[in-house]
């Protein structure tokens, strides 16, 4: 099982802070597709994804037991 944590406005859009994906192996790209279909997070291609507290690209493999953070883009100065 892969644990997913949502932050900021993505959390509000998903309606939950935390979710689980019942898979043993996925790529970050597959997780993005899952977010689009399951939580209707249309901007999932723009959110940053961290796996086990390290930013990851779409090719990164995510395994059961990993924690994925879904972080919207931020700006500021």
UniProtKB/TrEMBL annotation:
<protein>
    <recommendedName>
        <fullName>Molybdopterin synthase sulfur carrier subunit</fullName>
    </recommendedName>
</protein>
<dbReference type="GO" id="GO:1990133">
    <property type="term" value="C:molybdopterin adenylyltransferase complex"/>
</dbReference>
<keyword id="KW-0547">Nucleotide-binding</keyword>
<keyword id="KW-0501">Molybdenum cofactor biosynthesis</keyword>
<dbReference type="InterPro" id="IPR044672">
    <property type="entry name" value="MOCS2A"/>
</dbReference>
<dbReference type="Pfam" id="PF02597">
    <property type="entry name" value="ThiS"/>
</dbReference>
<dbReference type="GO" id="GO:0000166">
    <property type="term" value="F:nucleotide binding"/>
</dbReference>
<dbReference type="InterPro" id="IPR003749">
    <property type="entry name" value="ThiS/MoaD-like"/>
</dbReference>
<dbReference type="GO" id="GO:0006777">
    <property type="term" value="P:Mo-molybdopterin cofactor biosynthetic process"/>
</dbReference>
<comment type="pathway">
    <text>Cofactor biosynthesis; molybdopterin biosynthesis.</text>
</comment>
<comment type="similarity">
    <text>Belongs to the MoaD family.</text>
</comment>
<comment type="subunit">
    <text>Heterotetramer of 2 MoaD subunits and 2 MoaE subunits. Forms a stable heterotetrameric complex of 2 MoaD and 2 MoeB during adenylation of MoaD by MoeB. During catalysis MoaD shuttles between the two heterotetrameric complexes.</text>
</comment>
<dbReference type="InterPro" id="IPR012675">
    <property type="entry name" value="Beta-grasp_dom_sf"/>
</dbReference>
<dbReference type="InterPro" id="IPR016155">
    <property type="entry name" value="Mopterin_synth/thiamin_S_b"/>
</dbReference>
<comment type="function">
    <text>Involved in sulfur transfer in the conversion of molybdopterin precursor Z to molybdopterin.</text>
</comment>
């Amino acid at each position: 099982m892969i644990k997913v944590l949502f932050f900021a406005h993505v959390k509000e859009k998903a309606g939950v802070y935390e979710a689980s994906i019942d898979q043993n192996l996925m790529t970050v790209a597959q997780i993005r597709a899952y977010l689009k279909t399951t939580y209707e997070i249309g901007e999932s291609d723009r959110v940053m994804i961290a796996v086990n507290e390290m930013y990851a690209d779409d090719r990164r493999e995510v395994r059961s037991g990993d924690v994925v953070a879904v972080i919207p883009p931020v700006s500021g100065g």
